[in-house]
Amino acid sequence: MYKGPVARGSVEREKGQRAGIRYWTRRSQIKAVFGTLCFILRAMESRQRL
What top-level branch of life does the organism fall under (predicted)? Predict the structure, then answer.
């Protein structure tokens, strides 16, 4: 009787961790793309100044 809810909770926690990892990887990818775009924009600005 006691094992059921605990096991279910651990499974839910595991799912939450997986979702969190997926969310963080997606966020880091977005950050990387945003960083590269900013870098390219800065390079273009520096070229225009020259």
Answer: Eukaryota
End-to-end CA distance of the chain: 74
pTM equals 0.48
Q: Where are the alpha helices (DSSP H) in 1-50?
A: 3-49
Q: pLDDT means per 10 residues in the chain (50 residues)? A: 63 82 88 94 86
Look-up: residue for tokens 């651990």?
10
Q: Name the CA radius of gyration of the chain, rounded.
A: 22
Domain ranges of the chain: 1-50
